[in-house]
Design a protein that fits this description.
151 residues, alpha+beta, 5-stranded mixed β-sheet, 24% strand, globular, binds zinc ion
Length: 151
């Protein structure tokens, strides 16, 4: 399938999944993974996504923000929170994939999480979790594995 068609199919799958998840509270990281999966699965490049949540942690929207090598990339809090502010999100969950299939967060991933958590506190839009996605059965919730990065 040509690239553009694949992107369109992926965006459509992501929207459908979001629709299915809209009435559910994303308190369990497995549900966050399920919501983000259409955008993170089988990507050749790293992709960074932001899931916008309402006051009851139900998904409002999902935004694909960056594509490329995140370790060589500065994730800017202003960009991460822009849509959250615009759409009145009460909280966010961020996520990115590792094309290698390994879900072990890099030192840079932990650093980014701390920076975003700090920005979220200032904006009063908490970062509820950061998901590192390797494969369907291989992902890591930083809230579960590295809660210090979010506090
Ligand atoms: Zn990473």
């Amino acid at each position: 399938m040509p690239c553009l068609e694949m992107d369109i199919a992926r965006a459509r799958a992501a929207l459908e999944r979001l629709g299915e998840m809209k009435t559910r509270q994303v308190t369990d990281p497995a549900l966050a993974v399920q919501t983000m999966e259409p955008l993170l699965r089988d990507r050749e490049q790293e992709v960074f996504v932001v899931l916008l949540l309402d006051t009851r942690l139900r998904p409002i929207d999902i935004v694909e923000l960056y594509k490329g090598n995140l370790d060589g990339l500065t994730v800017r809090p202003a960009e991460v929170f822009r849509e959250a502010v615009r759409k009145n999100a009460a909280a966010i969950i961020v996520g990115h994939n590792h094309p290698s299939g390994h879900a072990e967060p890099s030192p840079q991933d932990l650093h980014i999480t701390r920076v975003l958590a700090r920005a979220g506190r200032l904006l009063e839009i908490p970062v509820h979790d950061h998901i590192v996605y390797g494969a369907p059965q291989a992902w890591c919730s930083l809230r579960e594995q590295h809660p210090d990065t979010l506090n």
